[in-house]
Amino acid sequence: MSTLSKSVTHAVADVTKGTLLVSVEIAASPERVFRALTQEDDVTRWWGSDDYFRTTGFHADLWVGGTWRTEGRLAEGRSFSAEGEVLEIEPARKLVQTWKLRWDRVSTVTYLLAPTDAGTHLTVRHEGFGEDVEMCRLHCTDWEMSLDWLARYLAPV
Q: Is domain 4-154 given the CATH code 3.30.530.20 in the classification?
């Protein structure tokens, strides 16, 4: 698992509102970042690590009303899945979707991609944790690690 001190991301959780914001600078175009967030062949390569969780499958119908689903394994061997519906999509700029884990309530994730001189500024807003402070904090840490993995995956060699 990556340590937070080495993270290239910046995460803030407002546990009183049940919302978190995570941002990262990625050395790739918005089109490439969007593809890495939405295509199975990319998502299963970057999302996870063997000592935390590993994403093993991903599918998304990329239109408003389309569905998405991901599956994977936690380090201790238990399986997990998450799924939701696409609420808004502007390729290479914005993706809004509901987010439902087996053990969690439905929340909303918004990805905002903005071009920069060095590539892309990606911001993730995850909201809908309500009064579940611990789940909000856990997701804040998980998103920070996840965007760190994404930035490393897309880093030029």
A: yes
